[in-house]
Amino acid sequence: MKRKRIIAGAVLLVFISSMLTFYLTRLIPLAYGEAVIIPREEYELMQQYSKLFQVKNILTNDYVDKIDQSKLVDGSIKGLASSLGDPYTVYMDKKDYQDFTTQTTGSYAGVGIVVSVDNDGHIVVVSPMKGTPGEKAGIKSGDIIVSVDNVKVNGNNLDKAVSLMKGPQGTKVSLVLMRDNKLINKTLTREIIKLQTVSSTMLPNKIGYIKMTMFDENTSADFTKALNNLKTQGLNGLIIDLRDNPGGILEQCVNVADELLPKGLIVSTKGRNKKDNQVIYAKGPGLQKPIAVLVNGGSASASEILAGAIKDRKVGVLVGTKTFGKGLVQSVIDFGDGTALKYTSARYYTPNGVNIQGKGIEPNYVVELPKNYVVTDTPDLKGDTQLIKAYDIIKSEIK
Question: Which family does it belong to (predicted)?
């Protein structure tokens, strides 16, 4: 028995030693003189990227000027992201990331136009922000940006185009736009762009009107305040204006939807990883009053999530023209050193299971604006045909 126990112990010791060796050699590099044993996964990764290291060594040793290694690394990472051909997947250096965060958290000096990339790889204006140099210069949703300060731009260098349009307050920037197959030159003076995203008023018959210009980190709280204020005035129905709203933070959009929808689905997201698969529900009870949502070709992303949920859940109707068609979800990884990676992590689907990427959402009532009519911050029940239609619909539903 004693001998058997000794043999059993020896076998167990050999097994434990083998397992430790296995895990150590897979997880921890081991040095033997000049040689280093590394995990198989690392070795295979080094083999896969061997040419990248070769190029790095050649440039470091033989390039005519001394190489800034940090720029070399940043450029390599940017190349990895851009190789996917997805304009929404980008590595952001410190300046890029700072510019990106100001879009949703503060103010910046620029021209106040929101841009995206269409299916043909053009940089297209989603919407000019109200009261900004872009709007004052007559830039319109659907305009294609050809160049910025004589630098040609397209969907492959979207971030560069955005960066070029920003700059010190009071400085000028020149844009070449394509509209109706004609080139248009615009020179704009950069201003401080302040992000105020929610405005509201009470229309006749106690029909509330709330306009949201984008979804930044304060939008849902400001929306709730505006809605509660309208309720205290005896709200009978609500018009939500999402025209030229390019989207923004998904969470903010969901919070707004939760105020409006009865218990049930708002949106679902599906990605390659389980963590990106979400099903987001409204808690209810919702507004429980007639709702009409104004949309157009400048309504994109988070705006389409809200509009799609209201339409699919039959809580309200959409009035206007077809939306932009951006059905992708971006995630941001902050590396903690001022840089970040923004990448497409999932596609979102409306309650009816529709992904509108590249297609947009058709409104329940297609209504065009009069030619050359410009929507202002003040609701116009005499000339704004889309608003008039929405108002008439709500008025007819008031009990």
Answer: Belongs to the peptidase S41A family.
In 3D, which of 340, 301, 345 has the Cα closest to residue 323?
Answer: 301
| Whether residue 131 sits in one domain with residue 1 | no
Q: Structure pTM?
A: 0.69
Q: Contact 321/366 with Cβ under 8 angstroms?
A: yes
Assess contact for 288 and 263: CB atoms under 8 A.
no
Same domain (yes/no): 146, 253: no
Number of domains in the chain: 4
241 lies in the same domain as 282:
yes
169 and 219 fall within a common domain: no
Residues 277 and 375 in one domain: yes
In a structure prediction context, what are the per-residue pLDDT tens digits for the chain, which is 399 residues long? 545 555 555 545 554 555 545 554 455 565 656 666 777 787 787 788 888 888 888 988 999 999 898 888 888 898 999 899 898 899 998 888 887 776 666 567 889 888 888 878 899 997 788 788 999 999 998 899 999 999 999 988 888 888 899 888 899 999 999 999 999 999 999 998 877 789 999 999 999 999 998 898 889 999 999 999 999 999 999 999 999 898 988 999 999 999 999 999 999 999 999 999 999 999 999 999 999 999 999 999 999 999 999 999 999 999 999 999 999 999 999 999 999 999 999 999 999 999 999 999 999 999 999 987 878 778 999 999 999 999 999 999 997
User: What is the extent of the structural domain holding 34?
Assistant: 1-48
- Write 59-64 long-range contacts (CB < 8 A, 24+): none
